[in-house]
UniProtKB/TrEMBL annotation:
GO cellular component, one term: endomembrane system
Family to which the UniProt record says this protein belongs: Belongs to the GPAT/DAPAT family.
Species name: Eremomyces bilateralis CBS 781.70
Membrane topology listed for this record: Peripheral membrane protein
Disulfide bond recorded as keyword: no
Pfam families: Acyltransferase, GPAT_C
Official protein name in the record: Acyltransferase
């Protein structure tokens, strides 16, 4: 057990040879090299010298988009003369030849799931305590797995909890936290990500796949940018948080099973603080700029001169939001765009010649969305406000019809914010403060016009598009809407797919469906709706986004989920009784009414208007007809609720969460 887990350092000769080999391979793939900030490197070296004197570990917490992440960080540490960090890695990578090589280069293998194995949990904690006590540098990925979508995932608290416990318990005096952002012009594994997101099963890592991927190393994938946030003391973080908790009024424990709520609060704060700081130092690459522009166009394509202008415009938008753009030593924007187009290649971006000017268009929108999502964290607040206002803007007519009362806007903004709580990393100021700040910024940018109460200017009465924004063709406003619309589509698809969980006539209500089959059904329904014109974005069938939507539905009490302690027994799901849609008494068909349909309609208020969706009754009939078709095969595999007498302890207690008014009734709770 310990032999496979413990990282091995095979001496300077091995490390020197490994460094030479991976550097040669990596620079062949990323021909423009690994780029860092000289200021950040100087600061990191000073911190490392002080940490070494105090025998403290530096805990690197990078974002995770590729297996190249830990390779590039190891190369940087070697060049700086820092101790190579022990890397926490899943044992799925521990296959012949590659596994022993990585373990000899400081990989620490752990199981993907610990289950109820207390001995293994204790062993991992003891080993990590030993590493931190001895001052070994450490590296783990706060997201837990590689992001298949291009944006940051929600934090995972497994390994992070071990690190926190080491210092919180006093077994380790202190450790230095260093959030790290790694950005790519192009990610090597993105093709496999697309296959997984479209429903193909993830292939288990093996030597043959590793060797066959070696042809990728001859490609020209641009460059890698690694940025280091200012390191900080984990002990100081804990002390500051504990001091703030003592100033707060006492609260009742929120965990019914008696867990230490203070530890959980510390852990969540730590995880989201690290993610926020990763976003803070992340740079936007040229390929992300190009991908974002091409996926936020109203037309089919864009000329080269307009593409260059819009890249300059987007760079200004990024910087105005406090973001960073990759530095290219003063090269003109046109040259940077040409390099980005070369890296993306004709498989992602096509070009039409023989016109007045060459015109570029998105070939593979699904794969380009990976690069667009690298910028969305900068604009998510503006995007949600814009999409909320769209409920009035899409009505058309006179300006007075497109003006939205502030309370209506606020309710929709908070509704969408709660809906996407598990999808994006929001600012930590709170929803009300963030809304106020976002409206102020949009008004300063002359995207919206705010009508205030004449007697009390602090009171907002209406919000509408500004005349300046209308005169320039809604360039800013449309951009924000296009950023968020695919995610709104995915949530709407998830809500509509839940209609298929309505038990057929004569079927007992206490019947459960396989969660994986339900989510596969949702993807199939989404693909059908897309090709039939009722879904605007193919990215909406993204498996990860649908999974996040289902997680939110569970949290809101719409879904009841039964998870088995036995990994061989699949997770099952059914609708909560008060969310089951009604059926027509005569035809037994699903009716577009009830809480679930109203919930889907609430999401639909912010969906992009499409030609096929203007006839509401026709669309309802067509969509619900497709839902009933996919439901037929789904209910063939329904199973009754597990009997506690027949299988004692087989299922965990089903948690029916208290529904939140934010989702169920359209009113957000802060």
């Amino acid at each position: 057990m310990t032999e496979d887990m413990i990282a091995k350092m095979e001496g300077k000769r091995f490390i020197r040879g490994a460094y030479y080999m991976v550097t040669q391979l990596l620079t062949r793939a990323y021909h423009q090299g690994i780029h860092v900030s000289s200021e950040e490197i100087v600061r990191l070296r000073k911190v490392a010298i002080e940490a070494q004197k105090k025998k403290q570990s530096i805990i690197f917490l990078p974002c995770h988009r590729s297996h190249v992440d830990y390779v590039s960080l190891a190369i940087i540490c070697y060049r700086l003369g820092l101790t190579l960090p022990v890397v926490v890695a899943g044992d799925n990578l521990n296959f012949p030849l590659v596994g022993p090589f990585l373990q000899s280069a400081a990989a620490m293998w752990i199981r993907r799931s610990f289950g109820d194995d207390q001995l293994y949990t204790t062993l991992v904690q003891a080993y990590m305590d030993t590493l931190l006590q001895q001052g070994f540098n450490f590296e783990c990925f706060v997201e837990g797995t590689r992001s298949r979508t291009g944006k940051l995932l929600q934090p995972k608290f497994g390994i992070l909890g071990f690190l926190l416990d080491s210092v919180l318990s006093g077994r380790v005096k202190d450790a230095i936290i260093c959030p790290v952002s790694t950005q790519y012009d192009k990610v090597i594994e993105v093709n496999s990500y697309v296959s997984e997101l479209l429903g193909q099963p993830k292939q288990k890592e093996n030597l043959m796949d590793f060797l066959s991927a070696s042809s990728i190393l001859s490609l020209r994938l641009g460059r890698v940018d690694v940025r280091f946030h200012e390191p900080w003391s984990l002990r100081s973080f804990i002390d500051d948080q504990m001091a703030s908790y003592t100033k707060m009024p006492p609260q009742m424990p929120t965990e019914p099973n008696g867990k230490d709520t203070t530890r959980l609060r510390l852990l969540r704060t730590l995880g989201f603080k690290v993610l926020a700081e990763i976003n803070e130092v992340s740079v936007v690459m040229p390929t992300a700029l190009i991908g974002t522009i091409l996926l936020t166009l109203r037309g089919r394509g864009v000329g080269k001169s307009e593409l260059v202008r819009r890249v300059d415009w987007l760079c200004a938008r990024v910087k105005s939001r406090g973001g960073r753009v990759a530095h290219f030593a003063g090269l003109p924007t046109e040259t940077v765009v040409e390099r980005g187009l070369e890296v993306l290649g004709p498989e992602l971006v096509g070009v039409v010649y023989g016109l007045v000017e060459p015109t570029f268009y998105a070939v593979d929108r699904f794969q380009l969305s990976f690069y667009r999502n690298m910028t969305i964290h900068l604009f998510v607040s503006e995007a949600i406000v814009s999409a909320s206002l769209y409920g009035r803007v899409k009505l058309g007519g006179g300006l007075e019809h497109q003006r939205m009362p502030f309370e209506e806007l606020r309710d929709q903004v908070l509704f969408l914010s709660q809906l996407f709580r598990g999808e994006f990393i929001f600012p930590t100021d709170g929803l009300e403060a963030n809304l106020s700040k976002t409206l102020q910024g949009l008004e300063q940018d002359k995207v919206i016009h705010i009508v205030r109460n004449q007697q009390d200017p602090s009171q907002i009465e209406f919000v509408e598009l500004s005349e300046e924004e209308r005169d320039q063709g809604r360039e800013n406003y449309d951009f924000y809407c296009f950023m968020i619309w695919p995610f709104i589509e995915a949530s709407w698809l998830g809500a509509v797919s839940l209609m298929a969980l309505t038990p057929p006539s004569g079927q007992g209500e206490d019947m459960w469906l396989d969660m994986k089959k339900v989510q596969d059904m949702a993807q199939l329904l989404g693909k059908t709706l897309y090709h039939q014109g009722d879904l605007s974005y193919f990215e909406a069938v993204n498996k990860e986004t649908l999974k996040n939507a289902y997680q939110r539905f569970e949290e809101e009490g719409i879904l009841l989920v039964a998870k088995s302690k036995d990994a061989r027994i699949p997770t099952t799901v059914r609708l909560a009784p008060d969310w089951v849609p009604p059926r027509a008494p005569s035809s037994n068909h699903l009716l577009p009414s009830g809480r679930l349909w109203a919930f889907a309609e609430h999401i639909s208020h912010s969906r992009r208007e499409g030609k096929n969706r203007r006839d509401g009754n026709t669309v309802r009939t067509r969509v619900l007809g497709l839902v009933e078709l996919v439901a037929e095969s789904l209910w063939e595999h329904a199973r009754p609720a597990a009997s506690p007498e027949s299988k004692p302890g087989a299922y965990e207690k089903v948690k029916q969460r208290r529904p939140r008014r934010a989702i169920g009734e359209g009113k957000a709770r802060l």
